[in-house]
Design goal:
With about 325 residues, this protein is of the alpha+beta class. The protein has 11 helices and 12 strands.
């Protein structure tokens, strides 16, 4: 299997269609996560941190010593999660994924560690009618710039090829996200990291399959997933991601400065002289005498007086 180059964020680097400098594509799980309801996950993490602090009194001491410093508190929280063995289920899931690859490749169940044999027996029984055409192969969607790796692309007994996802934990909370993820894979192309070529996998775009293998249960069931609905949600996720990066929504605001309206003083010698003028020549003389003190108000008054003297509107 080709090694996929990644950037410092862990995103796959994909050579664009037609060649050019590799571009970082968003991981499929990250893209579809834009619509994920994380409430239950955050509550679980809070509980695990509490358990970790209870198991490690030294970490509670570090909480006090951190004195509110965010970076140090983040490190303590990470250590508390480790202390609560929060990653145990994820590690078991990773192991089961690897074991299913081995038995799909022909390994005898007896060669599998004894604690996983019941799960592998159940897995093989549930999937015996499937023909696995691709396993852990990279796919890309160039329009959305998404890259991801479906667990299997397999053929059903009726000849349909489907995207298959193996889940070892609960699927009830995550089924909407799973539908989005499988829909992305179904609408993507196979990508060769060495040649940068894209090829069709011809998987069904309307239905995907979840292989549910709860760790340690010795049970495995299959569940079909509506990929038409999943693809609709992917378009919503695209809009959400675009909205989150949209610029120019806010800008500085200042109250408008009200116009200054000049008001003549109660006693205005210039105004009195304008009103006393009996000719246009006298008006011009008033202006010449008081040019340095003249205002727009005086201009308006002089124009009105001139109109009255001449009978011509200003």
């Amino acid at each position: 299997m080709s090694t996929v180059q990644r950037d410092h964020y862990g995103r796959p680097l994909i050579t664009p269609l037609g060649g050019g400098k590799p571009t970082a594509y968003t991981r499929c799980t990250t893209f579809v996560g834009a619509l994920e309801d994380t409430y239950n996950l955050e509550q679980w993490k809070c509980r695990q941190v509490a358990l970790g602090l209870a198991a490690r009194p030294d970490l509670m001491g570090l909480v006090h010593a951190a004195n509110g410093e965010a970076k140090e508190l983040n490190r303590v929280v990470a250590d508390a999660l480790d202390a609560s063995k929060s990653d145990a289920a994820a590690n078991t899931g990773t192991t089961l994924h690897a074991m299913t690859e081995l038995v799909d490749a022909g390994a005898d169940v007896d060669s599998i560690p004894v604690e996983y044999r019941a799960d592998m027996d159940a897995y093989l029984k549930a999937t015996q009618a499937l023909r696995h055409d691709f396993a852990e192969v990279l796919t890309v969607h160039d329009g959305l710039k998404i890259a991801g790796t479906p667990d299997r692309i397999s053929t059903l007994p009726d000849g349909r090829r489907v995207i298959v996802d193996l889940k070892t934990g609960r699927i009830d909370y995550a089924i909407n996200k799973i539908a989005m993820q499988l829909a992305v894979y179904a609408n993507s192309l196979l990508y060769d990291a060495d040649t940068h070529e894209r090829t069709e996998h011809h998987a069904d775009k309307t239905m995907g399959l979840v292989v549910h293998l709860p760790a340690g249960s010795g049970e495995c069931t299959l569940h079909k997933v509506d990929l038409t609905a999943g693809w609709e949600a992917v378009q919503v996720a695209k809009q959400v991601r675009e909205w989150r990066t949209r610029k120019g929504i806010g800008s500085p605001f200042e109250f408008a400065t009200p116009p200054v309206i000049e008001v003549a003083p109660a006693t205005d010698v210039i105004l009195e002289q304008i009103e006393a003028s009996d000719s246009v020549d006298q008006l011009e003389g008033v202006y010449a005498l008081h040019m340095g003190e003249w205002t727009d108000y005086h201009t308006a008054a002089a124009a009105a007086r001139k109109a009255k003297l001449t009978g011509v509107s200003a």
